[in-house]
Amino acid sequence: MNIPNIPAHAPSPGTAPTLADPDTPFAVVDVQRTLRNIERLSARADRLGVALRPHVKTAKSLDVARLLQDGTPCPVTVSTLAEAETFAEGGYTDITYAVGIAPHKLPRVLALLRRGVTLRVLLDSTEQAASVADASRRAGLPLPAQIEIDCDGHRGGLRPDAPALTEIGRILHDAGCLDGVLTHAGESYFAHTAEDRRLAARNERDTAVAAAERLRAAGLPVATVSVGSTPTAHAAEDLTGVTELRAGNYVFFDLVMAGIGVCHLQDLALSVVVTVIGHRPEHGWIITDGGWMAMSRDRGTAVQAQDQGYGLVTDLAGDLLPGLVMTAASQEHGTLTARDGAHLPDLPVGTRLRILPNHACATAAQHRGYHVIDGTRSTDTAPAVQAFWERVTGW
């Protein structure tokens, strides 16, 4: 495939940069692993007979999104209006803003609608519904809204039997704004067995479909029944009654997903390159220049059977260094230690390493973009950097 946007920081004219060249720490994406992850879920959605609406909140990158459907803009989910605006500029016209809407953000939503972008908002209260309905009437423009459904108590939303569900639906419908229902099985990130994930996926579907059926029984049209999380998207066996599937983390995956069995370590497409800057042999420490500002504070594997600290360690080529873990972090320092009786390797000052993150979304957010490599092209100790892909920042 052609990878656009070759970075301008090659060390000398005519010399392609490698992972040994940029200043550390920096984020790396393996494009072939990303493509493989994308194709895996796309094929699954096809088998399940539902539309896939990828969540771009993980990568927050138009360049990564271009891998989703051969460069053709597809329906997407966003977590910020900054993402919505950037993706609209990139030609994406079918967008769901899957965070509860605050009334003061509605002018930005309406601005995108006036540009021909279908931008759906999410809500779970009569107050939000009234604000959306009022803004829509004043603008003379339908403002599509979805009602958030709580399928597992993880975050916001209404239970399908909540008295307010039909009231909210009526407020939206009367203003021409009711689009459907949306749910997210956030607790599936703690589903540690395949059976637990299948049950979570079934519950996610059943809850969303029950909410949609209740609205329809009240005479309210429901066009969209949207479900999804990365664990449930890969575990669902039957999505009857569902119209679309959402997931985001799957493009990169991470140690949390590997820890619950959704993927393998070889599927992780995001890493952070750091440099060894010191040693504390009396403590068994190797110190790097990659602290929590490079990796984030996320410790998602701490509740799993195998705590991976702040991340697992590989060499620049991506080969795991057995037993070496990033176990501590301050702002700009990372501490690597050996565990399970492993030998602490001899890594001189200046050695570059890659850290596999706990949570791809949080780690990616620490960086302005990705240095892109193709892990299948060579076995070089320092893979060539083929492009730099920028990320969306802000809200």
UniProtKB/TrEMBL annotation:
Q: Which SUPFAM superfamilies match?
A: PLP-binding barrel
Q: What residues form the membrane-spanning segments?
A: none
Domain named D-serine dehydratase-like is located at: 269-374
Record-linked Pfam families? Ala_racemase_N (PF01168), D-ser_dehydrat (PF14031)
Report residue spans for region: Disordered. Answer: 1-23
- Quote the CDD domains the UniProt record gives: PLPDE_III_DSD_D-TA_like_1
Annotated keywords: Lyase
Q: Which PANTHER family match?
A: D-SERINE DEHYDRATASE, ZGC:162816-RELATED
Name assigned to this protein: DSD1 family PLP-dependent enzyme
Please tell me the species this chain comes from.
Answer: Streptomyces phaeoluteigriseus
